[in-house]
Amino acid sequence: MKKQVVFLMTDTTRKDMLGCYGNRNMITPNLDSLAEEGIRYENAYTCQPVCGPARSAIFTGMFPHSNGTVANGVPFGDNVKTVGQRLTDHGIQCGYIGKWHLDGGDYFGLGKCPEGWNADYWYDMKNYLEELSETDRVRSRRSGECFRPGFSEEFTYAHRCTDRAVRFLKQFRDEDFFLTVSYDEPHSPSLCPAPYNEMYKGFRFESSASFQDDLEDKPLLQRLWAGELLDAPGQQVSQPSEYLSLLLGCNSFVDHEIGRVLSLIRDILPEALVIFTSDHGDMLGAHRLFSKGPTAYKEAANIPLIIRGGEKGKVVHAPASHIDLVPTILDYFGIPIPKLLEGKSMLRQIYDAEVAVNQAVFTEFTRYEVDHDGFGGLQPMRAVTSERYKLVVNLLDKDEFYDLQHDPEELVNRIDDPACLDTIREYHGLLIRHMNDTRDPYRGYQWSLRTWNKGFVPSWENEGFTRQRENEEYEPRQLDYDTGLPMVNAVRSKYLYEMEGKI
Q1: Are 393 and 382 in contact (CB under 8 A)?
Q2: C-alpha 26: how far from its chain's center?
Q3: 10 Å Cβ neighbour count for 124?
Q4: Quick one: 308 and 388 in the same domain?
Q5: Taking every annotated instance into account, which residue ranges of this chain make up the domain Sulfatase N-terminal (predicted)?
Q6: In angstroms, what CA-CA distances link 435 with 254, 361, 363, 364, 428?
Q7: Does residue 160 contact residue 129 with C-beta atoms inside 8 Å?
Q8: In a domain, 181, yes or no
Q9: Helix (H) or strand (E) holding 392
Q10: pLDDT (tens digit, 9 = 90+) per residue, 388-401?
C-alpha cells in the first residue's frame, strides 16, 4: 500500500471557529466531516502562538528556541532540516503549496523553493503576488475588495493553492508522497467572495466571562496589550465588527476550498493520512485582548487538530502538540525518528485514541516579530499545560497558574495561592526539565528565581551541564571541547574532566 500524507493548514483558526468543536454557528461542513472520519484533539497546542515560530516547529520537529525562528522574520539555520528534506532524502515526493513564512523574508516570503520540496509546485505568497498586476496586488491586501462587484473566488490565494493541490494529487496518486497545503486564509485581510463575505454580518460570540476579565491579577503585559479595552464594558469588547465577520466568513470560505481537496482525496486516495491544523488562534476580545502574542490562553494557543486515517469519530482529551507532527509523519513512512527531534510519534494514538502520548505539552514566546517595535517587544514566556493545569512563566512579568478543570476560562490566576504551591512546583519542574532537555538557549536561573518559589538559591552555573547537539543524520558528530575527540555523551557534567583530574 502506498504511503501518502496530505497536511492541511490554515492561519488564525481558533478551535471554536469550527462547528465540530461545538460552535454550531460556524459553517465548516468539510472540516466537520473530516472530524467524523478521524480523530479530533481537544487539547492540542501550538509551540508558539505566532505565524513563523509556530510553523518552524510544525515543519522541523524542533521548538522555535531550538531551530532559531524565535520571531517572525527570523529564518532557521542552514543546518536545520525540514520534514520535506528528511522525506525527500528517503525517496518520498514532497510538495509544499501555500504560505511558508520561514525564509527570513517579509510576510510574503522570497518566492524561492527551499531544499526538500518539489520546485514545480512551490507557491508561496510572493509567487502569488508576482502573478498579479500592481493594481491587483494592492487589491489583494484590501478587505473591502470582498464587497466590490465582480470579486471572484478565482482571485483569492486560497483558490489558487487548491488548484495546485488538486494537480499534485492527480499527478502523484500512484506514488508515496507528502503534500502540504498551507492556506493564508482566514488571516486578514480575509478576502472571500459572496456569499461568505456577508455570511457572518453582525455576528458576535456568545457572552463569556473572559470578555469581563479585569486583568487585575494578571501580567502587566496583558494590561498594556488590552490598552483602551481594559476599562471598556464587556459588551463593547465583544461587539460585532467587519474584521470579525470577514474573518469568520473567510474561515467558511477556506473550509470550502479544503472541501475541494478532501473530495478528491476521497475519490482517488481513500487510504491517505490527512492532517488538519492551524498555526495559532486569535484572542478576539477574550481577556480584552486581540490578535496573538505572548500568551498561552486557549484562544491563541489551543489550536484545532484533526487527523483522518486511523480511528473514526473519536475525541482525544490528552494533551497534544505541533511538536509531535514531524515524528508522527516520519513514523508513518517507516523512517527512524532522529534524536534531534523534540516530540514524539502520535501514530499509535491515531490508531487507538485511548493511547496517551503526552501528559503535558509546552508553549513558548520570545518576541512577535523582528520588524515591529510593538507587540510588547521582548517577552520571554515558557508554559506547560496538562489536561488539568496550566503554568505560565513570564520571565519579565508576573507568572500565571490556572486550574482548567474549575476555571476553563482561565480567569483566576492562582500563582500566589498557597494551596496550589505544590502543584505549581511540580509543573515548574517539568518546565525547567524541558528547557534543559531541549537546550533552550534562554534557560538560566532566572526562570526559577520567582516570587512564589521561596527558598530557591540561584547559581551562576545553573544545573552545571554541557548539552551538545546531536544532528547526526546531516552533520558529523560534534567534538568534545575538552578532548577534541567526538563526544561520547551529548549531555554531561561541565566539570567531568576536572573532577577526574584530567585537566
Answers
A1: yes
A2: 22
A3: 27
A4: no
A5: 4-335
A6: 36, 12, 11, 10, 11
A7: no
A8: no
A9: strand 389-394
A10: 999 999 999 999 99
Q: Which domain holds residue 496?
A: 464-503
Q: What is the pLDDT of residue 496?
A: 64
Number of residues assigned to the chain: 503
Q: Which triple of cell numbers denotes residue 57?
A: 516547529
The reply to whether 458 falls in a domain is yes
pLDDT surpassing 70 at residue 166: yes
Comparing CA positions, the residue from 302, 320, 196 lying closest to residue 249 is 196
Cell output for 398: 508576573
Sign of CA dihedral 15, 20, 26, 27: positive
CA distances from 156 to 10, 251, 420, 468 (A): 14, 13, 50, 46
- With b meaning 16 or more CB within 10 Å and e meaning fewer, what string describes 64-85? bbbbbbbbbbbbbeeebbbbbb
Closest CA to 434 of 346, 328, 361: 361
The pLDDT value recorded for residue 499 is 53
Asked whether the CA dihedral 241, 242, 244, 245 is positive or negative, the reply is positive
Same domain, 305 and 388: no
Residue 376 buriedness (CB in 10 A; 0-12 / 13-18 / 19+): buried
Q: Is the peptide bond before 186 cis (omega within 30 degrees of 0)?
A: yes
373 belongs to a structural domain:
no
413 and 487 both lie in a single domain: no
Label residues 315-341 b or e (16+ Cβ within 10 Å = b): ebebbbbbbbbbbbbbbbbebebbebb
What would the pLDDT profile of 70-125 be if each residue is shown by its tens digit? Answer: 999 999 988 899 999 999 999 999 999 999 999 999 999 999 999 999 999 999 99
pLDDT digits (tens, 9 = 90+) for 257-314: 999 999 999 999 999 999 999 999 999 999 999 999 999 999 999 999 999 999 999 9
- Is the pLDDT score of 323 beyond 70? yes
What single-letter DSSP state applies at residue 496?
H
Give the contacts of 446 (CB within 8 A, at least 6 positions apart).
395, 458
C-alpha distances in angstroms, 36 versus 271, 276, 480, 498? Answer: 15, 13, 52, 60
- Same domain, yes or no: 441 and 416: yes
Domain match, 252 and 335 both:
yes
Catalytic residues: 51, 101
- Classify residue 463 by its DSSP letter: T
Q: What is the largest CA-CA distance in the chain?
A: 81
Name the residue type at position 54. A
In the predicted model, is pLDDT for residue 498 greater than 80? no
**What cell does 382 get?**
515558557
Q: Count CB neighbours of 121 within 10 A.
A: 20
